[in-house]
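Figure 2 data, in text form.
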Amino acid sequence: MKSTNCLSEQDLILYYYNELSPDSIPAKHVADCPLCAERFATLSSELAHLPDMTFKPDHAAGTRMAARVNERLQARHRNWLPALAASVVATVALVITIYNWSPQNQQIQTAQLANSSVTTVNFNDDMPDIDFLEDLEVLKDLDVLRQIEGV
């Protein structure tokens, strides 16, 4: 069983790849602890069987990556413009609506109506068929009287 002082897998891997100095505490612990020495030997044999991954950097890879990042940033930048335009239009419509329905504007409209002169002459000129409508009312009353007499 692993004791609390034993090294973690990460420390053993770092030691395998010579990322730790030979004078460090984990290096000394592997030399002194038989359990860690056995775990290190097992890990070393497993890592030795892995294929060698040689990396050859592509000099154009950085340029391609920068172009992709720039393209995505530009796409994000354009995505919020329609939403901003719609918000501005909605705000302007709301301001116009509030202005038109405000109590102050209602008072101004009422005052303008009170100041305008509406006379019966203007009213009669606008509705020349008022006599015809009054005649229709009289005819309806006559029809009602005929129905009452016939009963």
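Caption note: Residues 27 and 116 are 102 Å apart (CA to CA).
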